[in-house]
Each structure stands twice: as C-alpha cells, then as structure tokens.
Predict the 3D structure of the following.
Amino acid sequence: MEKQLHLLTGAYALNALSDADRAEFERYALVNADALEEVRGLSETAALLAYASPAEVPPPELKANVMAAIRNTRQLPASSVVRDISSSRKAAGRAHTSSQQRSRWMPLVSVAAALAIFAGVGVGGWVIGQNSSQSDLHKQLTAAQSQQQAILAIMASPDAKIATTVVSTGGTVTVASSATANQAAVMVKDLPTPPPGKTYELWFISAAGAVPAGLMGDHDPAAPSMQVLTGPMGGATHIGMTVEPEGGSPAPTTTPILVQAV
Amino acid sequence: MSGERDKVDTMRLPWLRSVKPLEPPTHEDLIRLVALGDEAAFEELYDAVAPRVFGLVRRVVRDPSQSQEVTQEVFVDIWQQAARFDADRGRAMSWILVIAHRRAVDRVRASQASTDRDMRQGIKEYQESYDDVADTVETAMESERVHKALQTLTDPQREAISLAYYGGYTHQEVAELLKIPVGTVKTRIRDGMIRLRDRLGVA
C-alpha cells in the first residue's frame, strides 16, 4: 500500500498508467476527496495539452463514415443514478457545509463513489466508454440504484449506526444499520478473496439464532465494495459474517470472522 | 426608386436593424442536442471539433489510417455518451479531448503489444514532434497560451509530460526511456501538471 498513490494524479490525468495501476489508483482516489479534486483539475489541464498539437482537417470520407456509424449506434442514457464525488464535494464547499456535517455524510459519499465504479463511471470527472452492451449497463444501473436506495434509507434514518471492524482474516468491514429503515449493509475493504469453493455469507443474529442474509458478491479484495443484507433486520442484535461453502449454508458452519452489534 | 422604398421600409421597421444575429451555438449547446439524438447538431459539432480531435489523434497514433479509425471511434463515443456530459464538471471541448486522448493511447498501447515500439525511437519522435509545435503557436490563442505555459516548466518536467501525453507512454516507460527512477517521473509529471494547471487558470 506504500506506493505513494497520491503522487499518481498527474500520470493518471495524462493516461500514463498501465491498466493495473489505473485500477489501483481509481480505488484509492474514490475514497480520497483531495486526490479526486486534484485529478479533476489535472484532467482538464491535460485536455488543454491537445492545443499544443496542430489541428488537422480529417479527410472528407471520415465524416461520411462517422455519420453512417452513428445512425447504427444507440445512445446511452444519462447515468443520473450516480454522481461524481468531486462535483458533490464542490457543491458542499460552496454551501459552507460544516465539517461535522461533511464527516457525517462522508461514508455515504464513499458509497456513492463505490457505486460509481460499479456503473462504469471513471473518476476525475468523465466517463470513458466501457464496452458493455446497453442491457448490461441497464442491469448494472438498476442493481446500483436499488443498492443505493437501500443505503440511502439506512443512512438517512435518525438512528443510523456505523461501525468499522478489522476482521481476523485481514481487511475491514464497516456495518451500517438502522432499526427504523429495518435494513443493514456492509462495506468491505481489503477482505481476502475466499478460498476456492468458499464464499462469505452474511447473517442477522438474534437470541433466536442466525438468519441467512445473503452472500457477498465476488469482489476485488483491494477495492471497497458493499452489499446490502438480504431481508429485514427485524429483531437482530448483531450482524455476522462467516466463510461457507459456495452457494451458502442455511445456518453458520464456521466460526464467524465478524460479529458486530447493531 | 428602390432606394426610397428601402428608406421607407427601414423607417417603418426600425427594430429589424437593431436585432443582433443569434449567437452561434456553443459546443455545450450542441452536445445537449446530440444527447437528444439530433443528427444535424452532431454534424455541426463534428465540423467544429474534428480538426482538433484529428490533430491530437494523429500526434499520438501517427499512422494516418489508424488515426482515422480512432477518430471515428471518438465520435461514436461522443454520440453514445452525450447524455453523460455534465457541464458542471468541465468544458465540452475538454470532455471531447479527454475521450480522444484515451482512445488514441489505447490504440498505441494495443499496437505496441504486437510491434513492441523501440524505446529509443520514442525519444527521437518526441524531440521531432516537439519541434513542430512551434509552427502552430500563432494559429490560435489557445495554442499560444498552452505553449507559453509549457515553456514555464523545467526541461525535465516538459520532457516527461510530453512523452506521456503525446507519446502515449506509461510513467514506467517514461522512466525506462529517460533512465530515471519511476518515483522521479511521478513527481516530475505531477509537479509539472500542477504548474500548468495554475498557469492556465484551470479551476
């Protein structure tokens, strides 16, 4: 982790990172508002470098090809579900949000940022086309939207609680929950990929026992990712996470790596 | 006779003379129309920005026919993603040039994998192409402004930024080319970009 990622803002803006470095930097920048702000300015600066290169009128047949190509190309909908963290931060700054308020909203902003990656939105302000088809994109957006709505319901509740734990397997798990919203979500970072054939299962735990609350989706260990627990929180007093055989178990079969009071 | 009639018309309709021609649509206006599927607006946008896009792509990709392919990809991207352009985040032209640069660099890296560009050639190309920038200084105020800003960089900063941006090299490749540590390249590029940003008054 000591790769001095904050020094890569310039190289990122110039597209001078390998794919792996770019992915790593984006994960870092998504949870680091200062880096994101710097990337935004440097990306705009990088675009200006194009002006130091001579303009050149392309051959006329290129225009004909382009016009023919767009007639066969469907346009993508605006991804209004997710907003870039950098612009929301700017708006917050203008409104002179107190730092206390801002810190309260930071987890939510980070989640929005995590969703941004999910929906194929790059950092630094602009979207560069992924090659996903429109229906894939639509599915992703719908999934992202329902996750975001659940998270919003939790975080906007007057009794929202957030607790972060370093788990025994390494990595951190943040549990967000609200009895009013009757929902809970986990955000994980640096959680190792489960062993082959295994998966992480989430549980609602109460005096009556543990109720399955869904499996963690596949995730890149280093990337922050999140999951809304399946089902209502009900009278659960704790959220748990165990390692289970692929497909999950009806009841926990291993010692939980996380038990968090809610 | 006709002169007199003109005079009368002018007197009757004085306001006709004071109406200013409509401002031409900005790039931002055009992109908003493109987002609604307006092909005529797209064509107008193409005419307005294609030389700048093609110039940049040619600079990075070099090969003329590949440059045309990449330029076509860029415009299809603009068409597809117009609804996602957000004027709050920057100018339309910047958005377009970011897409163009990313596409150009992707192409260079993809062909690099098959042909393995000669690293030493890279330096030579950079020096040659940097020279011809001087020819275009007077062509536009924006070019001059950028060129002047580039002059305020230290030579090592300018060299690293030019290799990365115009050469399409990753920062590791720039380090190899210049035989300096990767960490040095990172800071040269970042410090140089920050200086450019401040010089160019980018918010």
Residues 24-116 of chain B form a domain with the Rna Polymerase Sigma Factor; Chain: A fold (CATH 1.10.1740.10). Chain B touches chain A through 79 residues (CB under 8 Å). Confidence is low (pLDDT under 50) at residues 1-11, 13-18, 123-139 of chain B. Chain B has two domains: 24-116, 117-203.
